[in-house]
Every structure is written in structure tokens, then in C-alpha cells.
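Form 7-S
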Amino acid sequence: KVRKAAAVFTALGATVSEVSVPMHLVGPAIWLPIAAEGATQQMMKDNGHGFNWKGLYVTSMVDFHAGWKQRADELSETLKLTMVLGEYFIKHYRGHYYAKAQNLGRQLTAAYDATLADFDLLLMPTLPLAATPLPKPGAPVEEVVARAFEMLPNTCPFDVTGHPAMSVPCGLVDGLPVGMMLIAKNYDEATIYRAAYAFEQAGDWKAI
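Output:
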């Protein structure tokens, strides 16, 4: 479906070529320490704010967020797991892997930038698999966590690099939507919007 969607852009007059960014495959491994330690320390322990950041601090949000400690049992299973992992990394490795991941994130950014120097956009599947059913109420924790994290490999690398990205529906498989993701240079969201709009106007995405 995603390749057929790419062919729509060719029909619209765009030049579409296949490219490879090998470092994309390790993007999730780079993202994990940043996400786990960052969520544990900043989002939870620091109640949603960081330190030494020169921007607006919403004090009411900080005060409200602080109440999570009294209701920790209500946190999602995925967040609980993330916090356990993040706390383990912080306690035993003292930020080493967070720092290493941030350094590797610069290389990952450069890898995408090098490819985007020759193209306006990157196009890839939003998910690396077909849509799966939501876990049923009361499903085992292992299933809930697996369903949550299996969706991330193509999207989380751009949480590291900050490249703007958008998922656009481009067909159905077994009645469930397929998404293609458009990624642009930093600060070039407008190109994504134009491409997504042109694709939308080209026909019924459900018929692809």
C-alpha cells in the first residue's frame, strides 16, 4: 500500500526514488534510554518540567502533576514499565547511556539530514507491521506492553532527531488503515502539508 501511495506522487509529477538510511535501524535503541530516563526524571520526578530551560514554566501544571505520586497505582502499565526501566538506568549507570544515546542522536540526525539534502521528503510506512487488534480489557500486561511498543520503530527515531513528520492514511488491509509517514527537513513542515494535501486531493485513499 505504501509503495502504491508513493506511485501516486509519481503520477502527480514528483520524482520518487528508493533510498536507504542504515542508521534508521538503530533509531529505537538510541531512543529508548532518552525516553525511559527522560520520562522518569523530567516527566515524573520533576513533575513535567526541566531545569535551566529559558522558556515558560506553567506552575499550575507542575502543581497538578505532582499529585501523581498519590495515585501511582492508576498509571498505565506502559508508563510503569518505562519508569522501572528508567530508574534502573539512572541508579546503576548514572546517566551514562542517556548521554551516549544523545550523542548518537546527533549522528542519527546527520544521517537523515544527509539524505534530505537530496530530497524534499522521506516517505516510509508509519508502522513496521499491519494494524493489530487492541488488547481486550484485562489482557495480560505482557500483551498490553508488546502492543504498545511494537508500533514505535519507524516513528521514535524522529522523536530523537526532531524532524517534522506526519502520518497519512494510504489504504486498507483487512479493513484496517495503513499509514505512510512523510518526513521533512527541520522547520519545513510546509512541504509535508503541501504533499499530504496533494495526495488527499488525488483520490480516495481507501481505494489504494
